[in-house]
Amino acid sequence: MKLKKTVCFVLSCILLLLSCSACNNKSSQIEKMEIEKVDTYSFDFIGGNNVMPITGYHGPQTYQYSAKGQSIPDYFSEDFMKMVDDCGVNIIVATGVDYTTKTKYAKRLLELGNKYGVGIFIHDTAVNSSLDEDTLNVSELDQQINQYLNEPSCCGLYIIDEPANSEYYLEHEEKYISRYGKLMQNLSELDVFTYCNLYPITSTSVVEKYRRYLNEYMDTCPVKVLSYDKYPFVSDNSLKYADEWILNLSEIRKAAEAHHVPFWSFIQAGSQWNDAQAHFDTQGYFPEEGSFDWLVNTSLAFGAKGIQYFPLLQPYWFAYSATEPYDFERNGLIGAWGNKNRWYYYAQEINKQIRAIDQVLMNSKNKGIIVTTDKSKEHFAGCEFLLKENKWRELESASGNLMIGCFNYQGNSAFYVVNYDNESAQNTTLKFSGKYKMEVTQGAKTNLFNTDELDLTLCAGEGVLIVMK
Question: What is the pTM of this model?
Answer without folding.
Answer: 0.94
